[in-house]
Design a protein that fits this description.
Layout lengths: L1 E5 L5 E4 L5 H7 L18 E6 L2 E2 L13 E3 L4 E2 L3 E5 L22 E6 L12 H9 L8 H12 L5 E6 L2 E7 L7 E7 L3 E8 L4 E9 L9 H7 L5 H24 L6 E8 L1 H8 L35 E4 L9 H9 L9 E6 L3 E6 L4 E6 L20 E8 L2 E6 L7 E2 L1 H13 L19 H4 L2 E4 L2 E7 L10 E4 H25 L6 E5 H6 L2 H6 L11 E5 L1 H11 L1 H13 L1 E2 L8 H7 L6
Helix pairs in contact: 7-13, 7-14, 10-15, 13-14
Length: 598
């Protein structure tokens, strides 16, 4: 057994000689991005070996790498080593409303009572005392509340604060704590986890924080993570990773707002179906085999202790209901956030994260489908791809003056995120460097200015277009659009287009509705570029509206309102799920939509 020391951290972790560095780090709660699930094909889990020796699979000696940088999933320590890790910033999931409109009756409430303690003349239990004061004769029965009540009554508190959720008493506290009533809404994305701390009394978001989903160490997409559940201890590792992430987010939120974590009484969670299963430690493997059904669609509210969340132990965790196998509660939340379910006009809601969900309809009827878009829009499976974080290229311009890029944070480029890739491809199509088929047009070099033409190169036998030269990048390596990258975008684009066309046909839509773009991709996407590659068929620019983190907004609204929570439950039960692969013309439509000219 060897020891791994991490530079800049007062921490060492054990690693056996037959354990990859990635596995050792993951087991210790240190998560690297590994889009391929540790198969050694994505090259994302890079670490720098500062001292010590590592070998490859089966003990094969490794040649010296530039800067001693290796992929962690392919190296095994042969002695104590010291490593340096690259900091990975979480991407943003889009804007959130800082204030929220009146949504009806509050889900959570605090009431201060003056208790009438029992005497020899007036004999009654403490339970009955609370029931009478709250006018809730049958709603104070939980053993946990009785333990709290015994402690409060022993001190003969002159005021007692009663905490209720949907009229059920969930906690009692000594004194007047009516001002401190908080909840947390969480959107668990495959790539990014976003948390919002909400002041329930003020109906206002007081803090937000995002973190990279640590399950990225097990693969970029839900299928990779489902496969990881089959390995010994895999399900437990995935569950532990996301629970630890939620606790870290909650701690940051409460610290930034200077409130104790035990003043958080409710957590509302939205996420795709797989994420919900993994959080609860329920195997999602049924989602990966016919007929691709989930274990559950809805879960009763439960104690935060059940999954080890560090908030008020008498609080509740509410998981919003899923719609179908691959259309989760994040879509339910997005529908309610945009009021699509009560809209008199038809709306097309498109969430282009790692998973692509599309919902069409209005208050009369809603149709939804999940598209196998893959994680290209989040920068995964793209050679120089990264999340929408500092250093990511989000804008590209190609003209006679050359190539110009803009990054998040305006610093040196470190990679390209999904929206930047779409913009780059749109520019390459406009200049004729990429043909409608998606192939590079090497003949186009003859008509280009030299500054642009020389960037279309052959690398390892494959064409690529260099956006940023190695000397100008933050990583010291060139950033380029490769033929394989273009293919990934084509596949995602075709899936989205086909899903939209099938839903429009199902709804009998005579004209294209307003399009609502949700999520991180929708937050940064250049709409003209999306239209240029044919991502949104039959739509003009004026019809498109970015709506930010709709799933997070919907989770917040459900946290503060019983009516909104009830709407979520109704929506999940009424949306008509359309299985795209079962549609007669799906394959034909998909192949046709690969072309960028459509």
């Amino acid at each position: 057994m060897y020891e791994i020391t991490i530079d800049g951290m007062q921490k060492t972790i054990p690693c056996s000689c037959d354990q990859t560095l990635l596995r050792a780090l993951t087991d210790a709660g240190i998560f690297l991005e590994a889009n391929c699930g540790g198969k050694g094909t994505c090259g994302k889990c890079k670490v720098q070996i500062l001292s010590g020796r590592v070998v490859g699979p089966k003990g094969i000696p490794l040649s010296s790498q530039t800067g001693n940088i290796y992929t962690a999933c392919q190296v095994y320590p042969q002695q104590d080593i010291t490593i340096a890790l690259k900091h990975t910033e979480a991407s943003t999931k889009g804007s959130m409303k800082a204030g929220l409109d009146d949504n009806g009756r509050p889900l959570l409430c605090k009431t201060v009572i003056a208790p009438e303690y029992p005497t020899l003349e007036k004999r009654h239990s403490l339970q009955e005392m609370i029931c009478r004061a709250c006018n809730a004769p049958e709603r104070v029965a939980a053993a946990g509340i009785m333990r709290q009540l015994a402690e409060v009554a022993a001190a003969k508190a002159s005021r007692i604060t009663v905490v209720t959720m949907d009229d059920d008493v969930i906690a009692v506290e000594p004194g007047d704590t009516i001002e401190a009533l908080f909840g947390v809404a969480i959107d668990i994305g495959t790539t990014t986890v976003a948390g919002m701390l909400v002041d329930i009394n003020a109906q206002r978001i007081v803090a937000t924080h995002s973190a990279t989903n640590p399950q990225a160490a097990f693969g970029a997409d839900v299928i990779s993570r489902i496969e990881s559940c089959s390995a010994p201890g895999g399900l437990e590792a995935l569950a532990t990773a996301i629970r630890r992430c939620l606790n870290e987010i909650i701690a940051v939120l409460c610290h930034s707002a200077s409130i104790p974590q035990d003043r958080v009484y409710a957590i509302v969670i939205a996420g795709n179906t797989t994420m919900g299963h993994l959080l609860l430690g329920i195997s999602p493997r049924s989602l990966a085999v016919k007929p691709y059904e989930a274990v559950f669609r809805q879960i009763e509210p439960f104690s935060p202790n059940m999954i080890g969340l560090n908030v008020n132990s008498c609080g509740k965790v509410i998981m919003l209901p899923n719609i179908a196998s691959f259309i989760g509660s994040d879509t339910t939340a997005a529908i309610v956030a945009t009021d699509q379910d009560v809209s008199p006009t038809q709306l097309l809601l498109v969430d282009l994260g790692t998973n692509g969900e599309i919902v069409l309809g209005n208050r009369d009827k809603l149709w939804a489908c999940a598209t196998a878009a893959g994680p290209a829009f989040e920068g995964a499976h793209i050679r120089d791809g990264m999340r929408a974080a500092t250093g990511a290229i989000v804008d590209v311009a190609i003209d006679n003056d050359g190539v110009r890029v803009q990054t998040i944070g305006d610093g040196k480029p470190a990679g390209i995120c999904g929206s930047g890739l779409v913009k780059a491809i749109a520019e390459l199509i406009k200049t004729g460097i990429i043909m409608p088929s998606g192939r590079f047009n090497t003949e186009a070099k003859k008509g280009l200015y030299p500054e642009v033409a020389e960037r279309l190169r052959i690398n390892a036998g494959h064409s690529e277009f260099v956006l940023v030269e190695a000397a100008d990048s933050a990583t010291g390596s060139a950033i380029a659009v490769t033929q394989a990258d273009i293919r990934q975008v084509q596949l995602a684009k075709a899936a989205i287009c086909t899903g939209i066309e099938i839903l429009l046909d199902k709804a009998g839509a005579l004209s294209s509705p307003q399009v609502l773009l949700a999520g991180a991709f929708g937050n940064y996407i250049d709409i003209d570029s999306a239209l240029a590659i044919g991502l949104l068929p039959g739509v003009c620019r004026e019809q498109i509206k970015p709506v930010g983190n709709a799933a997070g907004t919907g989770a917040v609204r459900a946290l503060i309102s019983r009516e909104i929570l009830a709407r979520c439950e109704r929506i999940a039960g009424e949306v008509a799920f359309v299985e795209l692969a079962a549609q007669p013309d799906f394959q034909k439509m998909f192949l046709a939509n690969l072309d960028f000219s459509r």
